[in-house]
Amino acid sequence: MPRRSSARDPCRPGWGGRAVAGGVGSVRAPYVEPVVLVGVPEDSEAVREETFGPTLTITKVADLDEAIAKANGGRYGLGSAVFSLKRAPRN
């Protein structure tokens, strides 16, 4: 299991950011550690690629247009969600 854990280490080179919940060592084998990352660079593997594990990156955006641009900017159709204190216009 060390390979899976090291692949999901929030301090792993290429990921950046910091874990605010979970991470390596938060659960024992045979389970995979969920992790919530903040401050992750846009070009990070954690943001741009499928992690094949319970990994959540939190990215702040200024407005709906920026959120859509970021969602459409990747190579893959990764899952995403929007949480806001303001009600955004819906089309």
TrEMBL record:
The lineage of its organism: Bacteria, Bacillati, Actinomycetota, Actinomycetes, Propionibacteriales. Residues 16-85 form the Aldehyde dehydrogenase domain. This is Aldehyde dehydrogenase family protein. GO terms for molecular function: oxidoreductase activity, acting on the aldehyde or oxo group of donors, NAD or NADP as acceptor. It comes from Kribbella qitaiheensis. Transmembrane segments: none annotated.
